[in-house]
Design a protein that fits this description.
Arp2/3 complex 21 kDa subunit ARPC3, two-stranded antiparallel ribbon, mainly alpha, 178 residues
């Protein structure tokens, strides 16, 4: 593995950890759950670093969390977080970043909408497809109740897709060879 790849992997693992330090954005008055920024790191890792580097960055992050480092939003860490209701979402992060990377690399000249769809497919659809069944099983909630719970998170996750898309497009304009 070359130095540039190691830097990208470490950078996006660190960025994802740093996004976990941001306090959740609360929408209590609207009846929506608080939104954390950490999954934005997954989206950016795949879209900027590519499928291999982005996936490995998220794998590194997951390994560090499993080792007990409190890198998740709210200072959580340790193997126990993967055994909880949100474990499926977290374990999907390397796959999500890799899928986003594949989709984004396939269309380097993608329009805003196409880029947002690529990031949304990996950052939302795949993550939810892995996380919701896990939540249903581990939380003993059933699939329909787990899906109903997650519907409340969709608006915030869509905001993160738009932010990731704007950031990636800005980076591409500033650094065309990135």
């Amino acid at each position: 593995m070359d130095t540039k790849s190691i830097v990208y992997i470490a950078l996006f693992a660190a960025l994802t950890a740093a996004l976990g330090l941001m306090p959740p954005i609360s929408f209590a008055g609207l009846g929506l759950p608080p939104i954390t920024a950490q999954s934005l790191g997954v989206m950016l890792a795949g879209a900027v670093a590519g499928p291999r580097r982005g996936g490995l960055a998220m794998l590194l992050f997951i390994v560090l969390v499993a080792a007990g480092l409190p890198l998740l939003a709210g200072g959580r860490g340790g193997i126990g977080v993967f055994l909880g209701a949100s474990g499926g979402f977290l374990l999907a992060w390397p796959l999500c970043a890799a899928l986003i990377g594949v989709l984004v690399q396939a269309r380097p000249d993608a329009s805003f909408v196409t880029l947002a769809l690529a990031i949304g497919l990996g950052g939302l659809v795949l993550m939810y497809a892995c996380g919701i069944p896990w939540m249903a099983f581990v939380g003993k909630l059933g699939l329909s109740k787990s899906l109903a719970i997650m519907v409340a998170y969709v608006p915030g996750d869509l905001v993160k897709v738009v932010l990731a898309t704007l950031i990636v497009r800005g980076l591409r304009r500033a650094y065309p060879t990135l």
